[in-house]
């Protein structure tokens, strides 16, 4: 069992109202999607429950969705079926991706929704970014979204109890995040996520998972992207905003003089 196999069952309680419909999730990437050729081949390499992948398929793109968690991949396949979408869903962690797909396959790779911090430290991140880069065709783009860890670390360890119930599938739940911030940036950090569902009889069922993560600074991420052969084209990084998006492109193959 990997991290997220338990949360997969109740993951929709963690997705914002705005991003729950697949079409809306995809629409949040309209700007980068407009850069794609028609019928482009795209990969969502930490697909979670598949909202983005299914939304992208709804745009007529050829979509592959992968995730380290078997349960997440199953949910993505179920969501695709529910929407009649054509998504190839495969269980693979980032380092395994080159075992499943040829180099230079995808026009765009998405790694979104606070996923990359689960790569184990600088070494794990380098391996993950290297895999994503290999799979991109020359000129293809990696679209990555991230928490602003500079902000998260400044707040220190804490308990974040949401101030309203979240309603999904006719059921209310309270969502709790417990942040365990380690002394040093490079240390393993933890986020414990608990979803306490209240059923019709008033009883409470809690599903929780303790997730490991390794934060990184924005400038460190840019250097690591560069190391993986990716050049940052655009970044929305802002020290005062909770999240940011980076778009990085893979260098075109250099033309060798004859
Ligand atoms: C916070 S969720 C984000 C899911 C989805 N992208 C979204 O925005 O809703 C992080 C996802 O990353 C996946 N993940 C964690 N470590 C991974 C790894 N090493 N390789 C691939 N996926 C991983 C988890 O299984 C989980 O589905």
TrEMBL record:
Boundaries of every Methyltransferase domain copy: 42-140
Any coiled-coil regions, as ranges: none
Keyword presence, Aminoacyl-tRNA synthetase: no
SUPFAM superfamilies found in the cross-reference section: S-adenosyl-L-methionine-dependent methyltransferases
Key words, A-Z: Methyltransferase, Transferase
Superkingdom: Bacteria
GO BP terms, alphabetized: methylation
GO molecular function: methyltransferase activity
Signal sequence range: none
Pfam family, one: Methyltransf_25
PANTHER family named among the record's database cross-references: METHYLTRANSFERASE, OS06G0646000 PROTEIN
Stated name of the protein: Class I SAM-dependent methyltransferase
